[in-house]
Amino acid sequence: MRQKAKVENYDAPAGGWGSLNAVMHILTQEEVALLGSEILLKQNKPDGFMCVSCSWAKPASPRPFEFCENGAKATAWEITGKTVTPEFFVQHTLTELRAWSDHQLEEQGRLTNPMRYDPVSDKYVAVDWNQAFREIGAELNKLDPHSVIMYTSGRASLEASYMYQLFGRMYGTNNFPDSSNMCHETTSVALPEVIGVPVGTVLLKDFESTDCIFFFGHNTTTNAPRMLHPLQEAAQRGVPIVTFNPLRERGLERFVNPQNPLQMIAGGTRISTQYHQVRVGGDAAAIVGICKWVIEADDKAIKYGEPRVVDVDFIAQHTSGFDEFAAFCRNQGWDEVERASGLTRSAMLEAANTYMAANAVIANYGMGVTQHKYGVETTKMIVNLLLLRGNIGKPGAGISPIRGHSNVQGQRTVGISEKTKLVPLDKQAKLHEFEPPRGDGLSTVDACEGILKGEVRGFVSLGGNFVRAVPDRSLMEPAWSGLRLSVQIATKLNRSHIVPGEVTYLLPCLGRIEIDQQASGAQAVSMEDSTACIHGSRGQRRPVAEHALSEPAIIAGLAKATLKPNPKIDWDGWIADYSRIRDAIERTYPDQFKDFNKRMFEPGGFPRPLAARERKWKTPNGKANFTVPKAAFAPPKESDGVYELMTMRADGQFNTTIYTEDDRFRGIHGSRYVVLMNPDDMEADGLKSGDTVTLVTEVNDGIERRLSELQVVPYDIPRRCIAGYYPECNGLIPLWHYAEGSKVPAAKSVPVRLFKDVPPEIIEGGEVPISAA
Fold first, then answer.
1. Residue 168 lies in a domain
2. Which residues form the Molybdopterin oxidoreductase domain (predicted)?
């Protein structure tokens, strides 16, 4: 039986004393209280290190404490005094460790030595770096490069990412799935088609001049808390903030700045002026309703000779497809839009009137949009809304996808992509005198399918926790043991490391916060934030382990052991001085990285040029494109007994890293195995708070996906929608259940049935039958 969660009401705002207490707790927990507080003063500063957590923008004039609660947790987690030495693995088999929780595994501390799996003892044993490189290189050269995956987590620097993709392509593969495949690949697919760039158009300074902010599907409280500062400042200026989200997230309701003594006493600032709890997957329909009202208001203005509501000049000069989109909106019935969105007509009209009253609007969105079957269409609907009034390419306006991990966007910029059209292969071939493979590689979903079929034979992971992050865990973990080679480059122990292939290596790397001393001195690295600004980062503390190498050094070691010598690439010279890697990046991408080494420590970062910011549209027709959604706004199917499950993250985690088993803002403590339900649904299904249930995915593919012993927690969530934690609920997501066009797992809308657990003691033989609640 799992430990039950303690559930209590928590009505304090985001930030404030709760955040201060959480920061002090994590510093103490990781045994770095004094050291951590000193290093935190350097976090997100122009002369310091960039946060290893989220990718939100860094201001040119930082606050004294330019970090958030989750950023402090990520820092403490990395610089912890706890270590996992070879002696740890002498004491524990991998079979034993597989029974540990995600939190228990990472909580052991930093990896210190390169290790190789010994299948006879079922333990990791220490291995010399040179021996590990030789053996891995030999294994890679026995494999077909097309059968090898080179995965990248969103933390790796621009320098490491560029080296990694170059090593892989010289080896002969374009299989470069990364974290983006699981979160914002939807953005990377949708935006180029409609505005000609794969990233957002908003800069941090735009929040200072905007007069309206829209939010769709993002929990800023835990996923990008530093964003609450510009939101609070906007709210204090009277800027309306209109939020669409199934759950009421605390940071989008109220925020107290812990750095402001008066606010700590007074109670903070209300953030959202409107909060619309759409049904799970109802965002596109809500936007259709808003656009419908805007267009009908414009029709009335034409009829009565009044000033137009839409931006006529912008639409005529810069866009295509307006007439078709306007006709589509006019033809939608309000009853259907209400049912599809889960909102009333009056709620959508309220949002539309606020939108029409503003001159400059920013639209933010997160994985509550991208991780849906129709996520690509929903993203395009957000663009439609902005285009109606010219809200792209002017100060204080634009589209703002809020990316997750700290450099997940930057990795794509320097070549981590399975899509060859996004990589300047001809330029790389010329600069480095080799012939790269030309066919598209495998995405995350493709890689998983290849592992299940036995077609993928090798997996090299530059960070991350792939096994835990992907869907269909019950299928993926057993299939993982069929890999010939698994190489895991990491700072801490996680689930992917304890599910071995035939030949498995665990290679400890330095973290970004550690001083990276090479032949020419201490090195700096760089990354790109959500607003496409590039920042330099310098390590601040001595390495936790003598034998840990930097990610670039590990990549160079693997490359030298695997590839034939190339006179154009001096791997040792690159490691001696990372500025030489940046020179190579600049030569490959001269427009994006002009004067890279000179500019990398500019306060606030230097922005990559983006054509859409200047209203230049690099689309096939040279226009920004309105699009007509095909299915994204459709009402839900009426399936008796079926719920829409959305996965979510807790206050005590970042992605697959679990800092604690608590979720303070939702009042849940001690367990992550819970399911949030609407009280009316609970009553209808004969459930009460604290009951345990089993979720079973409603699919007909011959595979049963279930998760048992989930504690029911009554919560403010739309009817027929439920919520559970990621990654615990990943096993309920079929691998094939993804966003059309981008293959991002549709983790925010999984059809499930819910069954009440029966205590085993009253069942003969101890079996627990599943019966409808």
1. yes
2. 110-410
CB 445 within 8 A of CB 175: no
Please report the pLDDT score of residue 644 as a whole number: 95
Examine the fold and report which residue of 551, 577, 604 is the final residue of a domain before the chain moves on. 604
Tally of domains in the chain: 4
Among 348, 215, 347, 356, smallest CA distance to 289 is for: 348
Task: Give the closest residue to 164 by CA, choosing from 559, 576, 722, 521.
Answer: 559
- Tell me, yes or no, whether 634 lies in a domain: no
Q: Which residues contact 314 (CB under 8 A, 6 or more apart)?
A: 387, 389, 390
Sheet holding 254-256, edge to edge: 14-15, 254-256, 269-270
14 and 89 belong to one structural domain = no
Residue 640 — very low, low, confident or very high, per pLDDT cuts 50/70/90? confident
Burial class (CB in 10 A: 0-12, 13-18, 19+), 367: buried
Alpha carbon distance 159, 171 (integer Å): 18
Q: CA-CA distance, 358 to 361, in Å (whole number)?
A: 7
Interstrand relation of 750-756 and 692-697 (parallel, antiparallel or unpaired): antiparallel
> How far, in Å, CA of 512 to CA of 306, rounded?
58
Residue 572: phi, psi to the nearest 5?
-65, -40
Angle at which helix 283-303 crosses helix 334-341, to 10 degrees, equals: 150
The answer, yes or no, to whether residue 27 has pLDDT greater than 60, is: yes
Does residue 587 sit in the same domain as residue 653? no
Q: What is the DSSP string of 639-686?
A: -TTEEEEEEE--TTEETTEES-S-BGGGTEES-S-EEEE-HHHHHHTT
To the nearest whole number, what is the mean pLDDT of the chain? 93
Q: How far apart are CA 757 and CA 691, in angstroms?
A: 8
Q: For residue 72, what are its two tokens?
A: 């402090």
**What pLDDT score does 632 carry?**
65
Kindly report the backbone phi and psi dihedral angles of residue 270, in degrees, each rounded to the nearest multiple of 5, phi listed first: -70, 130
Question: ∠704-708-709 over CA atoms, to 5°?
Answer: 175
Tokens in use for 344? 């009333």
Same domain? For 213 and 335 the reply is yes
**How far is it, in rounded angstroms, from Cα 428 to Cα 438?**
12
Where residue 501 sits, what CATH number does that domain have? 3.40.50.740
Instruction: Please name which of 68, 86, 84, 72 lies closest in space to residue 32, comparing C-alpha atoms.
Output: 72
Q: In the 3-class helix/strand/coil scheme, how is 4-73 assigned residue by residue?
A: CCEECCCCCCEEHHHHHHHHHHHHHHCCCHHHHHHHHCCECCCCCECCCCECCCCCCCCCCCCCCHHHHH
Q: Answer yes or no: do 333 and 348 share one domain.
A: yes
- Is there a domain that residue 631 lies in? no
Residue 394, domain member (yes or no): yes
Same domain, 337 and 351: yes
Q: Give residue-wise pLDDT tens across range 96-129.
A: 999 999 999 999 999 999 999 999 999 999 999 9
Q: Is the pLDDT of residue 223 over 80?
A: yes
The DSSP output letter for 592 is: T
Tell me: do 163 and 227 sit in the same domain: no
- Cβ 223 vs Cβ 183: under 8 Å: no
Interval 548-592: pLDDT, tens: 999 999 999 999 999 999 999 999 999 999 999 999 999 999 999
**Cβ pair 79, 35 in contact under 8 A:** yes
Amino acid symbol at 678: N
Q: Say what the pTM is.
A: 0.95
pLDDT at 76: 87
Please check whether residue 459 is in contact with residue 485, taking contact to mean a CB–CB distance below 8 angstroms: yes
Are residue 217 and residue 337 in the same domain, yes or no? Answer: yes
Reduced DSSP (H G I as helix, E B as strand, rest coil) percent helix, strand, coil of the chain, to 5: 40, 20, 45
Residues 156 and 287 in one domain: no
User: How does strand 241-244 pair with strand 212-216?
Assistant: parallel
Output the domain CATH number for residue 287. 3.40.228.10
Q: Which of 376, 401, 426 is the last residue of a domain?
A: 401
Range of the domain at 369: 185-401
pLDDT given for residue 769 in this prediction? 38
